[in-house]
Amino acid sequence: MKKELLIGIVGSLLVLAGAGYYTMHYRAQTAQLDALMKRAAPSTNIQNSSPPVSVITLTKEEIAKHNSASDCWIIVQGSAYAVTGFLNIHPGGAAAIAPYCGADATQAFLTQGGQGTHSAVADQQLATLLIGKVGAQVAPTAIQKADINAATIPFSGEREDENERDDD
């Protein structure tokens, strides 16, 4: 009888601990999402707001300033994309994109670095990171939106470089 009672108490404590852990995890993710949404809040009602105080012209020179893994913009087929938040979840690893930060990555994207073509999913993911067309003027909120979208792209958990076979 005491053994059954002890097992019941331990089981209950484990269930409570698990529920507490998942509640804390959920709250942390919710807080992170709230923080991202607060950063993007000025862009939620652009039609009724006054014009942006500052705009960024997406020249090749401006894009070239964003040439590091901590601030990475690329050009693909005449459009600029903010890919900083995507670098670490790219299936090919950050090293597949990093050399193109601040530059035109069209050929690399279209040929998947000489490995073939990207999937329709990759095209959709890239579209969510769009800042605007090269030469266009955009509000800083376009960059914030791309950063938020990068945070919502799921990570497959697999990287090409981790799955390579050794064909000796």
From TrEMBL:
Residues 55-135 form the Cytochrome b5 heme-binding domain. One of its GO terms (cellular component) is membrane. InterPro entries: Cyt_B5-like_heme/steroid-bd, Cyt_B5-like_heme/steroid_sf, Cyt_B5_heme-BS, Cytochrome_b5. Keywords: Heme, Iron, Metal-binding. GO terms for molecular function: heme binding; metal ion binding. SMART domains: Cyt-b5. It holds the Pfam family Cyt-b5. Belongs to the cytochrome b5 family. This is Cytochrome b5 heme-binding domain-containing protein.
